[in-house]
Write a structure and sequence with these properties.
Length: 308
């Protein structure tokens, strides 16, 4: 076992073969509730969300199994469209679908158990950051509030669309670019929000992370909706998760604080990159269509999070 549950990383990693041609398996499972009214797009987002854990470890997906929690009264055609959307994402990832499992559930949920492959000498874990590294984020924040705003008719499909496009985006190219530019650590920003996943990097690496709030990429509408009271079921718990490790060195509104812990669906990669390579990696990400940003730096220990 190369990566287990001890560091709260994105996936487990098991060594298959060591040496010059070393091989390691990356294993993960994830499922979510619907984020939109289009069943096929929901299936694609759910698959991208699950596959992201493989990419966050520096791996490439090999195969997956569908995890279907479907209500018995699901309208005709919806289940098939969800599965077709997931199959689209798997095809784009170059991964095979081997089957899956289904259960009857009162609330619709769907996702994947995914297996990937990585070079054991070049894993991207949340324990490899180095003091002096720069922090890059590859997608904007704010999907949690936007999805809930859509569910409760506070925004329409047009307003959700930019966030939905980002949720559909695979993290494959971002992971590949991170490896090419010598990234030292990575995690994908999902249910615990930016600070929750950043804290895992800080703990795992034994270092501090300083994040520049004004540098964060944010989906349009988030701050307005959060200020108007739109929130998520995870926001309060995500705040509590990091409150003992967080130093805020500037004035932030309640909505701005909520952005830092907003639970993301199929979020971007938080990357720790040597300072000399950070500008080139950011340029490559932007050139490939990512709404990426340089958001901070890695500090010597002790582990902590700083917002400036």
């Amino acid at each position: 076992m190369l990566v287990g549950p001890e560091t709260s990383d994105d996936a487990g990693v098991y060594l298959l073969a060591d040496g010059a041609n070393g091989r390691a398996l990356v294993a993960t499972a994830d499922f979510i509730t619907p984020v939109c009214d289009d069943a096929r797009r929901f299936g694609r987002v759910a698959a991208a969300n699950a596959l992201s854990d493989v990419y966050a470890m520096g791996g490439r997906p090999l195969f997956a199994l569908n995890l279907c929690c479907f209500p018995k009264d699901l309208p005709d055609g919806v289940a098939g469209d969800i599965l077709r959307g997931a199959a689209d994402a798997l095809a784009d990832a170059g991964a095979a679908l081997l089957g899956g499992h289904s259960v009857a559930d009162d609330e619709l949920k769907f996702g994947l158990a995914a297996i990937g492959e990585a070079d054991p000498a070049r894993l991207l874990t949340n324990a490899g950051a180095r003091a002096g590294d720069r922090l890059l984020l590859t997608k904007p924040l704010g999907t949690g509030v936007l999805v809930n705003a859509f569910k409760f008719d506070r925004i329409d499909a047009e307003a959700l669309e930019p966030a939905l496009v980002e949720m559909e985006r695979l993290n494959d190219h971002a992971s590949k670019l991170a490896l090419e530019h010598g990234a030292t650590a990575a995690t994908d920003v999902t249910g615990f929000g930016l600070l929750g996943h950043a804290w895992n990097v800080a703990k795992g690496s034994g270092l501090g992370l300083r994040i520049a709030y004004d540098a964060l990429p944010v989906h349009d509408g988030f701050l307005r909706l959060a200020a108007a009271g739109v929130t998520t079921g995870c926001t309060v718990d995500n705040h509590r998760n990091v409150e003992g490790s967080l130093i805020i060195g500037r004035e932030l509104t309640s909505a701005q604080r909520d952005l830092l812990v907003d639970p993301q669906t199929s979020g971007g990669l938080l990357l720790s990159v040597p300072a000399a390579a950070a500008d080139a990696l950011l340029a490559a990400l932007l050139a490939s269509g990512h709404r990426a940003a340089a958001i901070g730096e890695v500090l010597p220990g002790p582990p902590r999070l700083e917002i400036v």
